[in-house]
Amino acid sequence: MSEPILSVRDVAVRFGGIVALDGISFDMPVRKIVGLIGPNGAGKTTLFNCLSRLYVPSDGDILFEGKSILTRPAHRIAEIGIGRTFQNLALFQNLTVLDNVRIGGHCRTRSDYVSDALNLPWSRRNEKQIDESARSIIDYLDLRGVAQRRVGDLPFGTQKRVELARALATNPKLLLLDEPACGLNHEEIEELGERIRHIRDDRNLTVLLVEHHMSLVMSVSDQVVALNFGRKIAEGTPAEVQRSPDVIAAYLGTEKQ
Amino acid sequence: MSVQTENLETAAEHPALAADMVTKPFGRDRTIGIAIGVILFVAAIALPFVTKSFFVFQVTMVLIYAIAILGLNLLTGFNGQFSLGHAAFYAIGAYTAAILMDKAEISYVWTLPVAGIVCFAFGFVFGLPALRLEGIYLALATFALSVATPQILKLSPLEHWTGGVQGIVIMKPDAPFGLPLNQDQWLYFFTLIVTVLLFWLAHNLLKSRTGRAMMAIRDNPIASRSMGINNSIYKALTFGLSASYTGIAGALGAIVVQFVAPDSFTVILSIALLVGLVVGGVGWIPGAFFGGLFVLFVPNIAEQFSKGLSGAFYGIILMGLMFLMPAGVAGFIAMLRRKVLRHEG
């Protein structure tokens, strides 16, 4: 097996006296879809926020392509190829779909106030590049019909797709999806599973998926990591994790206690 | 809601239809936009030749306030940072121009870029600690700035430069190249050129990568960071840029009024600019012109109703406007457009 794209090593997060993550370790192989599951409060989103540097782990390290990301500030995570979506939509509500996706291209381009204000040639070239890549992603995710609409006016399911488009516009190698199925209806969830696999295949991505919707996780993931109370309780193929007594206990409770 | 969803889906399935839906109103908007542009251009050129000098002066002041309000709009409307301190930047711009003309005898034209740079520096430096403050807390910190400024301008150690309480009197410049214009007409055209230039720059900026980053920070600072936007540097630079616009307005104001004094730049001016911003429309570039009109003319109109109760009438006019146009002129125009579109289609 080749070197993992992401290694989480003994990551611990404490908020005051509360231990949100307690020494989590796992590796993500390249071009695999890894599902991260666990009951509410298990620490899934906390781990996600460590990966995008919104939280600082109290212990441990996170390696992306062999290099620690903990020395990077949050705004320099997108440029190394980690893109994400948020659990409760974090779109730029007053902007159009197109502008939201264009902002995804921010980390792939350079510009400054002066050249942008003067609309200098390189600024225009830049803009053209951002625009082309944004439009191709918009077409890819069937958002063309709403490209000029204000994103806050769109239905929830469409907004989720816009968020995915925006994450793809950062041109990630590793895509972090925080509960992409949350709030979607049954049909949309099926579509989503297919879409995640397609995206991985078309764009050669590795995907880390936090999800509550079990049938989705189990059907799309190559590998599943289960957390409970900040600890890893199981890791393996979907079938293995589903059989794990600890996972069953975490979700359904045990008889004796 | 369900109807809307259905429409969207059909639009997504039929890109041609969707493109048509999108381009049609915009295509016509463009024609209307060009027509309005031509009318405004002709009116702007003709104005100083068909109206009295004092009115020309007033319109010049409207343009100057529009620049100052645009500066505030860049910060508040497009970047989400509040300021009740813009009178301070206006004052710094005005004094920079006045001192340069009075002490160094520099031509008025060159005082504008200098005022812009000086105010950019002040704004940027003030913007750094402001990074830690948000919303009403930032409003308070900037409020302190405009409370302090007039008193600092009166300090005796600075009196040699600022003229203390007396302020500084400036000579009105003549039209260059022997143009057949009187001083008011020339200053109007000079201000108009600067205004067009500054609005063009702001327009370019806001539709670029930089402008989108500014708005992304306004709408969702956590998501903007995850998209690779360095929030701190953009916020501080936008503070500097905003101060720079307002400072250039201040410099123009000093040249046009021919006089600067500390008490012209109290916190009342900050509030007037904020009122102009809200009346014109937060986050809409042309709104600054409507804001400028309001700031200049409404206090005069209120005074015509009653000298003693002018403040009360000002308040009534403001409340009436906000009742009729809760989202300012911007919201009002957007509503009219929607009505016309719905009526037609």
Give a structural overview.
- The complex is a heterodimer of chains A (257) and B (345).
- Chain A has 257 residues and is α/β, with parallel strands linked by helices.
- Chain A has two domains: 167 residues, Rossmann fold; 76 residues, no CATH class.
- Chain A has nine helices and ten strands.
- In chain A, helix 6 packs parallel to helix 7.
- The longest helix of chain A is centred in the middle third of the chain and has 20 residues.
- The N and C termini of chain A lie far apart (41 Å).
- The mean pLDDT of chain A is 91.
- Chain B has 345 residues and is mostly helical.
- Chain B has a domain of 209 residues.
- Chain B is built from 15 helices and two strands.
- In chain B, strands 1-2 form a two-stranded antiparallel ribbon.
- The radius of gyration of chain B is 22 Å and the shape is globular.
- The interface between A and B is large, with 48 and 43 residues.
- Chain B: Keywords: Cell membrane, Membrane, Transmembrane, Transmembrane helix.
- Chain B: This is Branched-chain amino acid ABC transporter permease.
- Chain B: It is a multi-pass membrane protein.
Secondary structure topology:
The complex is a heterodimer of chains A (257) and B (345).
Chain A: E1 6-15, E2 18-28, E3 33-37, H1 44-51, E4 59-64, E5 67-68, E6 82-84, H2 97-104, H3 113-118, H4 121-140, H5 156-169, E7 174-178, H6 186-203, E8 206-210, H7 214-220, E9 223-228, E10 231-236, H8 238-243, H9 245-252
Helix pairs in contact in A: 2-4, 2-5, 4-5, 6-7
Chain B: H1 2-13, H2 15-50, H3 53-76, H4 86-103, H5 108-130, H6 135-154, H7 159-162, E1 168-169, H8 183-206, H9 209-219, H10 221-226, H11 231-257, E2 259-260, H12 267-280, H13 287-305, H14 310-324, H15 328-344
Antiparallel strand pairs in B: 1-2
Helix pairs in contact in B: 1-2, 2-8, 3-8, 3-11, 3-12, 3-13, 4-5, 4-6, 4-11, 5-11, 8-11, 9-11, 12-13, 13-14
